[in-house]
Amino acid sequence: MSISRVPGPDNLYVGGAWVLNTEAGRKKVREQNITHVLSVIKFSFEKWGEEVQRFKHMSIDVLDDEDSDLLVYFPAAVRFIDSGLNPPEEPETKGDGPSPGGVYVHCAMGISRSVSCVIAYLLYKYPHRFGAAQRRQTAKETVEKALVLVRQGREGVQPNNGFMRQLELWWEMGCPADDDSAVEQHPIYQKWLYERMLKESRDVHEAPNPEDIRFEDEVEQGKGVAEIEVNQKEGKEIRCKKCRRILATPKFVVPHVPTGRQESSNCAHVFIETLSWMRPALEDGALEGRLSCPNTKCGATIGRFAWQGLKCTCSEWVVPAFSLNRSRVDEVAPRRTDALTIRLPPGRNGSL
């Protein structure tokens, strides 16, 4: 496959590495006035001699593997592409107006890695084309729309499943690209990395290192900024049936039924996120075990955990699983004062 133009107002092209290694390909590059080359592969311009000076070049050395992390490079990649299409010395184009520069994005074959970076740029630059109003609800559909657009200019391209998922996360994050670490610092990316770590542990039949366990309630408290949550998530809070101690608020309850199906009232388990009160049960590194009420005056057995996952009575698997037995807990509507909370940085209310 030769060099292909991405449909749209920009002089944006995608293809394989061979284009840059043949005279015919080099001629095509010259004809398209390409000034910037993004190599999503380890690549050198040594064969170009002095002519290499006509290009600005960026290289991202990543394998075309579902487990490769391309997401973390998206901020740098989209800013590089944009600098070629809209040079700083030129007035930046607005809307869908034409751009002056030419950018070639390539990998080995121009099918997966390079196309992923092109899609990342389209989502970043033109979110209005793909449905910016509801990012999380439409992430999968949005990425597919962008892929369809690229295929109009280059048939048969298909990022691997891992990259497709990373593009969905990129969209859910809001395509942050203020600096190279914009993704790395994002909570969605950090949660994704944590889930990858858990999978690696499961693959070798081990529990994660206790020091690496992410307790979701501590993550919330650690945000360190004032925020107001109004009905953040509908649902019921979970309390110990014996002592009435709150075990989980609605935001930490994990749905465990496929999208589109209503959770069955016959489910014997309520699954929740990993919370800090579970620390004593998890710190010995066991793959599975019991969960007890954190109230020291109660200590009732209320459920179990299994890093390898558990199968609910409704036949759904939840991995990892932190399960509370419905016969041992009560599910109650949160008090109205719990529905509206204001979180302040430590010390603002006189306490730590």
Describe this structure in words.
With 352 residues, the chain is α+β, with helices and mostly antiparallel strands. The protein has two domains: 4-185, Protein tyrosine phosphatase superfamily (Protein-Tyrosine Phosphatase, Chain A, Alpha-Beta Complex); 209-352, no CATH class. It has nine helices and 16 strands. The chain has helices spanning 23-31, 74-85, 113-125, 135-153, 161-173, 187-203, 216-221, 279-282, 336-339; strands at 4-5, 12-16, 36-39, 56-59, 103-107, 227-230, 237-240, 246-248, 269-271, 288-292, 301-306, 310-311, 317-318, 321-325, 329-332, 340-343. The strands form five sheets. A five-stranded mixed sheet has the order 1-2-5-3-4, covered by helices on one side. A hairpin with a 5-residue loop joins strand 7 (237-240) and strand 8. Helix 2 (74-85) crosses helix 3 (113-125) and helix 3 crosses helix 4. The longest helix has 19 residues, at 135-153. The N and C termini lie far apart (61 Å). Residues 224-231 and 338-352 have low confidence and may be disordered.
